[in-house]
Amino acid sequence: MTEIILTEEQRMIREVVGSFVRKEIEPIASRIDEEEKFPEDIFRKMGEFGLLGVLLPKEHGGADAGAVAATVVIEVISKVQASVGLSFGAHAVLCANNLRENCNQRQKDKYLPGLASGKSIGAMALTEPEAGSDAMGIKTHAVKKGNEYILNGAKTFITNGPVADVILVYAKSLNIKDQKIPLSAFIVEKGYPGFSVGKKITKMGMRASPTSELIFEDCRVPAENLIGEEGKALNMIWRGLNVERITLSGICLGILHSCLDTATRYSMERRQFGKPIADFQMIQQMIADMSTSISAAHLLVYYAAQEADKGRRVNREAAEAKLFASEAATRAALDTIQILGGYGYTREFPVERWMRDAKLMEIGAGTSQIMRYIIAKEILKQ
Ligand SMILES: Cc1cc2nc3c(=O)[nH]c(=O)nc-3n(C[C@H](O)[C@H](O)[C@H](O)COP(=O)(O)OP(=O)(O)OC[C@H]3O[C@@H](n4cnc5c(N)ncnc54)[C@H](O)[C@@H]3O)c2cc1C
Fold first, then answer.
1. Residue 179: left if φ>0, alpha if ψ -120 to 50, beta else—which one?
2. 22 C-alpha to center of ligand 1: Å?
3. Annotation marks residue 244 as catalytic
4. Considering only CA atoms, which residue is closest to atom 37 of ligand 1?
C-alpha cells in the first residue's frame, strides 16, 4: 500500500493505540454493536491512556499532536470498532478541538482538562430536525438576559448526546442585527436548567455510538460560556468542519483496511471448483480495486491532515478526502461481503457491520452531495 511517511511520534501513537485497541476494544467489538452499548468504561480508559486529549494542549493534559495524529488514532480504533472511532471523534475533535481553537483561557482552563482525562465526555450540536445540510438554517436561538443566555430549540442526530457532560452548541443570536447569519457558540453543561436529552435515536450502524436529540427549553447558560464574539461563529463552524471531515475519514480508512485484510485472507482459504477463490480474476479485480482505493484514500486524507496541521485553508482537500474515503469504504465493505458469499451476509462475520458503519460516513459531517458541491464551488471560483 502507498503511504505517507509518518513522524516518529505519529508512528509511536499508531503502535500504542493499536495495542490498546487489541486489548480493550477488539474482544467486545461485535457485542457492543449487537447490544447498542456505548463502552463508557473504555472511553474513560482512553482518557487515562492519554488518547482523548490527542489534539489538546499539553498544559491541559493533552498531547498537542495535531490532525495527522488524531486521524491515526481514529483509523486504528475504527479498524476494529468504527462506532467507538465515531464517538471518539465527536469528543476529541468536534467538541474538544473546537474548544481548544476558539475558547478564551478561562474557558480552556475550566473544560479542557476534564475532556483530556475522560472525566467529562464531549459532543457538538449543530444539526436540527429541519436543518441538516443547510446548517445555516438552524432555528435554536439565544437571547441575552442579565448575565445569562437563554437558549430555546432542539438538536438532533447528536453523537454522544445521551452521555455528554459538555456540549458545544450552536444557536442564532436574536439580538445581533449587524450579521447576516448571526450564529453563536456556547458551552452547555448537562446539568444546566432547561437542558435535557431527548429521544435516543436507533440506527442502522454505528450502534455503539449513542445518538440523540437534545432539547433546550429556556435553557440558562452563563454569559461567560459564550465562545468568542456573539453572532460571529460562522468561521468557527467552517474551520471546525474541515478538521472534522479529515479526521473522521480515518474511520473510512480503518474500515477499508479491515475489508482488504478479510477479503484477502478469506479468498486464499476458501476453495471452490478445486482451487482457492483468489485464483479467479473476478475476485482479484475486487481485491485490486480495494487496494487501490486504500492507497488513494490514505493519500487524500493524510495530505489534507498535513495541510490542516500547517494551518492552511483546506475546504477542497477536506471535502475530497471525505467524499472519496467514505464512498470507497462502503464499496469495499460491499465487495468484501460479495467475496465471502453467504458467510459475508451472516452476522458471524463483522463485514456486515463494517458496511452498516461505512454508510454513515457518506452522510455525517456533510453528505457526499454536499462534498461534491463544496469541491465544485472551490474549483469554479479559481
Ligand atoms: C449517526 C449520525 C451522527 C451524527 N452526528 C452529528 C453530531 O454529532 N453533531 C451534529 O451536529 N450533527 C450530526 N449528524 C448530522 C449530520 O451531519 C447530518 O445528518 C447531515 O449533515 C445531513 O443532514 P440531514 O440528515 O438533515 O439530511 P438533509 O440535509 O435533509 O439531506 C437529505 C438529502 O438531500 C441531499 N441534499 C441536501 N441539500 C442538497 C443540495 N444543496 N444539493 C444536493 N443535494 C442536497 C443530501 O445530500 C441528502 O442526500 C449526525 C448524523 C448521523 C446520521
1. beta
2. 32
3. yes
4. 133
**Per-residue pLDDT reduced to its tens digit, 75-98:** 999 999 999 999 999 999 999 999
Q: Mean pLDDT per 10-residue run, the chain (382 residues)?
A: 89 96 98 97 94 97 97 98 98 98 98 97 98 96 97 98 98 90 97 98 98 98 98 95 98 98 98 98 98 98 97 97 98 98 96 98 98 98 87
Three-class DSSP labels, 114-174:
HHHHCCCCEEEECCECCECCCHHHCCCEEEEECCEEEEEEEEEEEECCCCCCEEEEEEEEC
Q: Report the pLDDT value the prediction gives residue 175, as an integer from 0 to 100.
A: 86
Nearest C-alpha to atom 25 of ligand 1 is from which residue? 132
Answer yes or no: CATH 2.40.110.10 is held by domain 124-227. Answer: yes
Pick 234-380's CATH classification: 3.90.650.10, 1.10.10.10, 1.20.140.10, 3.90.850.10: 1.20.140.10
Q: How far apart are CA 342 and CA 352, in angstroms?
A: 11
Where in the chain are all domains bearing CATH 2.40.110.10?
124-227
DSSP state of 232: B
Q: Which atom of ligand 1 is nearest to the CA of 209?
A: 1
In tens, the pLDDT along 209-240 reads 999 999 999 999 999 999 999 999 999 999 99
Sequence ranges of the chain with CATH classification 1.20.140.10: 234-380
Please provide the CATH number assigned to the domain covering 8-120.
1.10.540.10
Kindly report, as residue ranges, where domains of CATH 1.10.540.10 are found in the chain: 8-120
Determine the residue type at 299. L
Determine the atom of ligand 1 nearest the C-alpha atom of 133. 29
Residues having CB within 6 Å of any atom of ligand 1: 90, 94, 124-127, 132-133, 157-159, 203, 206, 211, 360, 363-367, 369-370, 373
Residue closest via CA to ligand 1's atom 30 equals 132
In whole angstroms, give the CA distance from residue 72 to residue 70: 5
